[in-house]
Amino acid sequence: MKRDGATTSLWQHDMPDFVSKTTGMTDTIFDVVIVGGGITGITTGLLLQKAGKKCVVAEAYTLCFGTTGGTTAHLNTFVDTTYAQVKKDFGEDAAQLLAKATQQALDLVKNNVQEYSIDCGYEEKDGYVFSQNPDQTKELQDMLQSSLKAGVEVAQADHIPVPVPFEKAIMYPHQAQFHPAKYVYALAKAFEEAGGVILENCAVTDVADGEILNVQTSIGIISGRQLIYATHIPPGINLLHFRCAPYRSYAMAVKLKDNQYPDGLAYDMYDPYHYYRTQNVEGEKYLIAGGEDHKTAHAANTEACFTKLESYLQHFFAIDHIAFKWSSQYFEPADGLAYIGNLPGNPNNVYVATGYGGNGMTYSHIAAITLSEILLTGDSLYADLFDPGRIKPVAGFTNFVKENADVVAKFFGKRFSESKLPELAGLATGEAKVVKFEGDSVAIYKDDSGRLHAINPVCTHAKCIVAWNTAEKTWDCPCHGARYSADGQVLTGPARLPLELISLEDLIEKGEQ
Ligand code: FES
Q1: In testing the pocket of ligand 1, which one of 464, 476, 484, 497 has its CB within 8 Å of the most ligand atoms?
Q2: What is the pLDDT of residue 270?
Q3: pTM score of the predicted model
Q4: How far apart are CA 204 and CA 497, in angstroms?
Q5: What does the pLDDT average to over 336-342?
Q6: Does a structural domain hold residue 28?
Q7: Whose CA is closest to atom 4 on ligand 1?
Q8: In a domain, 184, yes or no
């Protein structure tokens, strides 16, 4: 199974690519075109197909290529934005509605696992949140009270499943965990058996508005009456690019010497927080731990984030070895809730689901429920709560927008001369960096054979400057999270066009590498 970076997640271990039954393009007019073959796209497609809609999922690469293949797969009845915060910003009714949505999401996963007999290591587990200082303890108390008030089952706990010192803890029962790729593959199979179409290696490049949408893709035109962007962030430039900020999180699957694997899900309360759980894959147990999150392209050395995470874990666990380590991207919503519904600034037959924060497994199912209800009946209980067009004057929103306003720069040159060679002398194979050249920036990558590649580092989405991600060997955009391969090809949107290649002829001819 392929993913959008150089590291390998636990879920990719021994997982072949999904092979769809579809052999070519079809001239059908679909009821719904779903862009993106991750957990949101496939789950939504299955619900709609089963309800009688004729659906197609168009995936630019292969299923689970994006964040679904890099999640740590926690299913929770609480999300990063606490019920106390939701009550403060949106009201008590909203907190209760969110609680209902998270529970319905978890029920949907459980039902899917049962209905399709999915062998994906699904298990219900208790989820523990624990404090480690008086401020966190106060916050934890608020979490407990506000969760109870919202209607979520939770209680004080006198123990936690991880050997980390703590002051107080609370426990949410009936949380869950699973192997996300096995789950999505099984749903994809059910979707196809129900008549749904999956087109892999099918990148959507443009959409022409109309009652019938003409969707231009890398393999031809698809027509559909409605379209859902299940791409983590939609393409184009719209309101949501100013209301979502991309972040990166780091995860490890660890083998322990003492076999003391935690029996439960656990979360500390630092910002960013650490998260823990155990998963059995092909007869092997792994501690999955994650954290060290930062805004995308805002860490000079992303490899160092793994080092920090490992040394933190070493304080508490008898680590035998790190079996897998990987990172993945998520989008923080400005006011704390996901955006699910009509895509602002687009016709009313174009929909989106984004801004899941660190709760992608839960929110993907909330999105599937909400979007399928809206498309089937014209409304959903959750439509207003997650309306992407909502405007909430929440404290911190101004700062959030500023955080998103990274530098915009432009590169005019087309040739990179030998004059900059000394600056590149220290570049090792497989490394890259953005260097200044005559006042402009140039992205330089030295491939494994030692060959230099020069690329215009101006993101093709809205002209921010990309940064090199050392761990994943990708160019990441700090503004709206577009990601490119080392040679500039689009890995994940919102960009649709590759980074511009710059001629290195002069340099290569002089054999200066
Ligand atoms: Fe928007 Fe790069 S993703 S400018």
Answers
A1: 464
A2: 94
A3: 0.90
A4: 11
A5: 96
A6: no
A7: 462
A8: no
pLDDT at 438 over 70: no
Atom of ligand 1 nearest to the CA of 482: 3
Per-residue exposure over 214-240, b if at least 16 CB sit within 10 Å of its own CB, e if not? ebebeeeebbbbbbbbbbbbbbbebeb
d(CA 216, CA 223): 9
The span from the CA of 480 to the CA of 493, in Å, is 9
The range of the structural domain enclosing residue 452 comes to 418-512
Q: Which token pair is 416?
A: 């990179």
448 lies in some domain: yes
Rounded Cα–Cα distance for residues 203 and 30 (Å): 17
How many domains, the chain?
A: 1
- Sheet of strand 474-476: strand arrangement: 467-469, 474-476, 483-485, 490-492
- Ligand 1 pocket: which of 459, 483, 492, 500 to mutate (most atoms within 8 A of CB): 459
Residue 346: pLDDT band (50, 70, 90) is: confident
Tell me, in angstroms, the distance from the centre of ligand 1 to residue 212's CA. Answer: 29
Whether 414 has a pLDDT exceeding 80, the answer reads no
Q: Are 240 and 233 in contact (CB under 8 A)?
A: yes
User: Rounded to the nearest whole angstrom, what is the distance from the C-alpha of residue 191 to the centroid of ligand 1?
Assistant: 33
- DSSP assignment of 125-169, as one string? EEEEEE--SHHHHHHHHHHHHHHHHHT---EEES--SSS---S-E
Phi first, then psi: give them for residue 128, nearest 5 degrees. -110, 135
Distance in Å, CA 151 to ligand 1 centroid: 39
Q: Kindly give the number of the ligand 1 atom that is closest to the alpha carbon of 408.
A: 4
Q: Which residue has the higher pLDDT, 399 or 342?
A: 342
Residue 215 pLDDT? 96
In a domain, 477, yes or no: yes
- Around ligand 1, the residues with Cβ closer than 6 Å are 459, 461-464, 477, 479-482, 494-495
The reported pLDDT for the residue numbered 433 is: 80
Q: pLDDT for 279-297, tens place per residue?
A: 999 899 999 999 999 999 8
Query: Does residue 404 register a pLDDT over 50?
Result: no
- CATH for 484: 2.102.10.10
**Top mutation candidate among 461, 474, 476, 490 for ligand 1, by most atoms within 8 Å of CB:** 461
Per the listing, tokens 């076999």 go with 259
**In ligand 1, which atom is closest to the CA atom of 480?**
3
Query: What single-letter DSSP state applies at residue 274?
Result: P
Band of the pLDDT at 491, cuts 50, 70, 90? very high
